[in-house]
Give the backbone structure.
Amino acid sequence: MERKKILSSRTLKWIAIVTMFIDHLGLVLSAGTPVEVWRTMRIVGRLAFPIFCFLLVEGFSHTRDVKKYLFRLGLFALIPEIPFDLVVFRRLWYTDYQNVFFTLFIGLLLLYLYNRFLANTQPIYAVMAVVSMLCLAFLIRCDYGAEGVLMIYLFYFFRFRPLAMCISTGLLMAFMGGLEVYGIAALPLILLYNGEKGGRRSKSRGGELAQKYFFYCFYPVHLLLLAALDYYLFR
């Protein structure tokens, strides 16, 4: 019997946001709590990134203007960089490692270029786009690195083949090793996606924009709050 798909994109977003917050809170608390506590929180947080990658692919597949989508991701890659550095490195500015929005931006750019070259029957350039974006992620050392961008590509390439999608991304997470192996637990949740946005639709344009940008703004805002918590509790 086929499994009933019950999770909308909004529900998946909330799962990703909550688990991401738990992950980052565990990172902050690692300075003053038992290792079992913060490690468990970081394990829970491994669910977030695969879900965000999957939702990025869904967003790319349904967006009316991919260039505006790229602009939003690029902008929100720059905004949280200082709070990200404060939380992760306890430094105001650290140029050797970039936040996860850079990973998502590069992944979206990869999908855009890949499809554009394929549409123009230029498969060799499509392959070059994949390789170049993986190299870019490696060079700028964005969160999850080239493996994170590759995960986005695998979710896209196998989007109509759920079994292949789960096997390929699961093997990638196993290859990444460490805590990232626990990200495999996100795959059953992704398989429950029903293709719907979910939630109540706002009747106003402003309400729709507020709902959309909440998920973007949460990232820098929660990092700022956690940086403040870290400063007052552990320094």
User: Anything to note?
Assistant: The radius of gyration is 18 Å. DSSP finds eleven helices and no strands in the chain. The mean pLDDT is 92.
